[in-house]
Design goal:
alpha/beta, Nucleotidyltransferase, domain 5, five-stranded mixed beta sheet, about 40% helix, globular, binds 5'-O-[(R)-(carboxyoxy)(hydroxy)phosphoryl]adenosine, binds zinc ion
Amino acid sequence: MKDVYILAIESSCDETSASIIKNGNTDISTVINTQIATHKLYGGVVPEVASRLHLENITLVIDECLKKANMSMENIDAVAVTYGPGLLGSLLVGVEAAKTLSYIYNKPLIKVNHMMGHICANNINQKLEYPLVSLVVSGGHTDLIYMENESAFTYLGSTLDDAIGECFDKVARILSMPYPGGPNVEKLALEGKSTYPMPDLLKDDNYSFSFSGIKSHVNNLVHNANQRGEEINKADLACSFQNAVTNALVGKTKKAIEKYKVKNFAMCGGVAANSFIRNNLKEMCDSLDVKMYVPEKKYCTDNAAMIGAAAYILYKNNKFTDLSLNAKPNIQIDFNDFK
Ligand code: KG4
Ligand code: ZN
């Protein structure tokens, strides 16, 4: 089969990104314009501001991506885009850009689920082996998924309330650290010890997660200490929090790996950039003789390369869409995309 070059676009949250991916595994060029500096001013992503910035940047990012690859649209085999889940206004900018390119240059259009993109980030520069259990940990999701092969999934469980990345961001805010909080909490936790008691996040015998309780617990600890005029050791608190959520991720993932008797585990999503969580999951996998896949850090947080990697699987299966494509802000991983 000849080489397949996919131009992928991602704009579901606060990163405007375009990427050219060869054969679903080789990153020819990726450009990411992050809006973090702007949203930091407000303590989190402001949807209206995000969509406006996507609009300002989308054509520049696509142009730069093609230039960096030294390619033109004529060399592209298909255009792929994230159509959900995400912020409606943000998604629409990417979807409209992709539809326009597909129409003008007469290229097949592929719609990609953002969460599928996160999982497929694991195919860049490596190759996932199946069957596997995948843990998607991002600002919007905490999902455990069983995959029999690259297009067959079973949802095992997800968060009943806050996503883990969202929880990291809120804890950072309680500890007066800027958005996005995850990397800051991780850094601070390195300086501390796990001394604060935390709720048991593993008490329910299922694959669901719940992080709103621990967030309130951290908030109450800080609030009560402030009222009593007591000093909080922020590093110890960050460390105790990170330990507790890591134990939950490791415990539930281990349970899924054992139940489904898989020998492969794939972690992904923005929170997969957290070295403490990665290391703990790796240790658990090693103890079970399970191979752990995790994307390079730059492919953990939102990027278009992962969308191109997922799109390649759809391309091979002739799963194209037409210009009636619309953004779908609230979808889960859509298994029908692959059927
Ligand atoms: O996947 P992503 O870029 O966007 C979504 O699809 O949500 O994930 C962003 C999330 C944010 O909540 C951010 O705080 C978190 O990933 N994150 C981290 C780390 N790096 C990013 N959380 C914990 N530790 C990190 N090192
Ligand atoms: Zn994401």
